[in-house]
Amino acid sequence: MIRKTRLVKVIFGCCAAIFLIFQFLETRTTASEATTTAAGSGDLKSTKHEAAAVVTALPASKSESVKPLPVVVGIVVPAAASLPPNPPIAAAALLTGNKNSSSKEVPSASGAPAAAAEPSETKTEPKSSLSGERIHGLPNETQILTPKAVVVSDLKIARILDKIKLVNEEQSIRNEDIFGPVTNATVIVAIQCHNRLQYLRQLVISLSQAAGIDKTLIVFSHDYWDDAINDLVNSVDFAKTMQIFYPFSIQTHPNVFPGESSHDCPRNAKKDQAQRLKCLNADWPDLYGHYREAKFTQTKHHWWWKANRIFDQLRVTKSHDGLVLFLEEDHYVSDDFLSVLRLIEAERTSRYPNCDIICLGTYLKSYNYNRDHKTVSKSNAIGVPGFVAKPGGGGRPVPSRHISQLQQQRRLLWLPGALLSSVIDAFRKEYQMWPGGPVFAKKQRVEVMPWESAKHNMGMVFNRKLWTKIHACREYFCNYDDYNWDWSLQHLSKHCFKTKLEVMLVKGPRVFHIGECGVHHKKKLCEATKVVKKVQDILVKAKSFLFPTELKVTKVAPKKSKNQKNPKGNGGWGDHRDRALCLNMASAAGSRGNRTTLSEEVIKDLNVNEQKTRQIQTVHASKTNDIRLR
Question: Which residue among 51, 126, 292, 435 is least enclosed by CB atoms within 10 Å?
């Protein structure tokens, strides 16, 4: 009986094996037939050749492979009339040879420039905040002309400039008749805006829910004129608002400085090549040998212009001695951010008068909520999927096989295996979201420590006392070869101020970063609502700990951070024109009239000099050719 049972099992197993073999052979035959059919199709061949031509015409970075055929076939090349003016032939040829290497080198810890191959930290997408860590070095990207590229006509630019000039001169305050005048007790909320409406809308929603927001003045500082954004700002009815417009943007100066002129040097040109091309800024590469890119220099210009405008120029704020909170369009605030700010300010005034900055935001400890869970081993389902933290924020992805070797595990707030209990003990004194994460408490923890640009640049608050020190060190700020305004402040702290900057950092953040796409954050898909939901989950869990009435302040010894060992900066600010414009924005008040007008004059002078330089170079080239012909 036992032998018969075994025989039946053997026969069944053989039949199953034969069936699987036939299935495999049939699948291979079908695939080969499909391949043969595709290869024999003349239409498909021609489509492939056309797609290949389009791919060849588009620049691609070293780190990018050729896109799949179905994606390329769908590309529609815009008409030639809609394309921006081409660079000179020599510059275009140089771009073909060098443009593939398209990111600024990030200096090593020793201060030496990075090697020709870009470090992996600038190419990966680390997670030190809800939307990814800010990349301080110039992001690794190559500008590709797409059908969405918009060429603004000179007439439209002139109209935009007229509107900007009118708004900046009027300095009108909306809702002042409802909420009263601005006093020194009024908190100025300065928001730096570009063109990301989806993020700005979420910030406005969070501001509308904040307690005490009706006692603030919200200043929206724009470097992009957009009717939809203006409509959103004009719809704010819960506080006093004002709009100011950075008048030297790329939008209004697309083909001349401070934008990018066709006679500027290609970013990756070597200095000797740039000098042979006789491009305008050939003698001014940055400390890594690269030439300026307007889309990166604009951020520092805008921040500097905005600060000068608020503290020294606007009629309503030029004598204001109260607090100024600096936000960006992709931030999100908690309901009690103003309550916590006033609590910390009272503590700072009474016990820590030498503390310069209050920081309401912080980059949360490293975790990755966007990585495919399949890359994580089952035993580590509640850890950080494929991520190793680094001091000072940031990190690098690692294979899932190394996950078990991580010594410090982080728990994800929103993974099923790590959901926090919705019931919080009412008598509990502190509530930490996850190990190493934000700490909310009825007696809110605040730490006093040295200010670091990489950690304490979000939700910064300071007053005129610190601004006076910054303004006095304007040459250090404007001449430092770093396109980041916060790293430039770090340079001031180390080399110009008598004592280094100190910050009071709230351990339970009241300002969060939700921007997944922008200058310092790069993602394929940009969804504001996804990250906002994560922030809202955190705030719901910590609801009983919001609006604290006491603070627990501790002094923290300074820690050395790898990010702060870089004395040279991230580059991108070697062009003398950028430095001249920056210094002009900070010229002494009243010494030569309105500084906005002065900056316009400086830009005109610089562009006139560009034209003269081109004429001289043309004459020189023609004389050289004549000599050669003789």
Answer: 435
Reply yes or no on whether the pLDDT at 77 is more than 50: no
Provide the residue range defining the domain that includes 433: 154-367+414-597
CA–CA distance, 569 with 559 (Å, rounded to integer): 19
Residue 340 region by backbone torsions, left for phi larger than 0, else alpha for psi between -120 and 50, else beta: alpha
Q: What confidence tens digit (pLDDT) does each residue in 269-315 have?
A: 999 999 999 999 999 999 999 999 999 999 999 999 999 999 999 99
**Separation CA 100–CA 116 (nearest Å):** 12
Give the containing element (helix H, strand E) for 626: helix 595-629
- Bridging pattern class, strands 324-328 and 187-193: parallel
Per DSSP, helices labelled H in 555-594 are 576-585
Q: Does the residue 375 lie in any domain?
A: no
**Whole-number Cα distances in Å, 590 to 161, 309, 478, 582, 598:** 24, 13, 20, 17, 11
Look at the chain and report how many structural domains it folds into: 1
Give the Cα separation of 609 and 459 in Å (integer): 40
DSSP reduced 3-state for 66: coil
Is residue 149 in a domain? Answer: no
Instruction: Judge if the upstream peptide bond of residue 258 is cis by omega within 30 degrees of 0.
Output: yes
